[in-house]
Amino acid sequence: MEGELVVGVDAVNRPGCDGSVSFGPSLEVGQIVCVTAGPFTHLLSELKRLDDQGRVRVLLEISSVLLEIICARISVSLPEAFVASA
Questions:
Q1: Smaller CB count within 10 Å for the chain: N or C?
Q2: Whole-number Cα distances in Å, 11 to 1, 8, 53, 68, 80
Q3: Which fold has domain 4-9+27-85?
């Protein structure tokens, strides 16, 4: 797809005490999320897709240009969660 960029796909997630891996707050397609890592940090985007390998696809609008990127699930959060941790 034109304008597609892959960012931070190889991020490592540390398992919890019970061996489970946490990807943070529950996210749903269509939500507005904040990018928390990489060159697009602090930008709001629309969540377009989640996969079972810990990646998300988000749609950014930069200077009236739509850009779809793929990044690690841990590289996005709900805007409220990002503000609270800053």
A1: N
A2: 23, 6, 11, 19, 22
A3: SH3 type barrels. (2.30.30)
